[in-house]
Amino acid sequence: MEIKGTQRIEASRTAVWTALNDPEVLKQSIPGCESIEKVSDTEMNAKARLRIGPVKASFSGKVILSDLDPPNGYTITGTGSGGTAGFAKGGAKVRLAEDGSATLLTYDVEADIGGKLASLGGRLIEGTAKKLAAEFFEKFSVAVTPPAAHPVVEPAIIAAAAPKKAGWLRRMLGKG
After folding, report:
1. Is residue 164 classed as helix, strand or coil in its secondary structure?
2. Architecture field, domain 2-172
């Protein structure tokens, strides 16, 4: 299975690079992630609990970073075992490019699965993989983007902007 994409992140390339190598940011961003342990500058162990179609499993795996080119990108490879659910292995080339004050993160993923997971069918697996990637990037973008880039809406403004609805009694009495 191959998945390619580009994500625009409202943060500097250096900030995105730093976050891609920070186990805490990754733990917050990876769907179902329970733990990430940095073993060395290029190796991490991770545990995640995921549901893929009807199969729910806990995966443990190893992630290795190679072809490091800070802050431009790297290659990430990993293997994971989900017990009776099966296994997953694969890799991705991740590239970072400046886009004004933001960063374009381009990824090219190749993955292979086996066991019960492989019996689910390519469309379900690919759909789930794309959904998980979208969820990762949404969480990652929030974690990396400076707070000033996130609009803060005061509750009083929301209440004032919302039209006041009459309750059922007021409507019956013609006062709403």
Report:
1. coil
2. 2-Layer Sandwich (3.30)
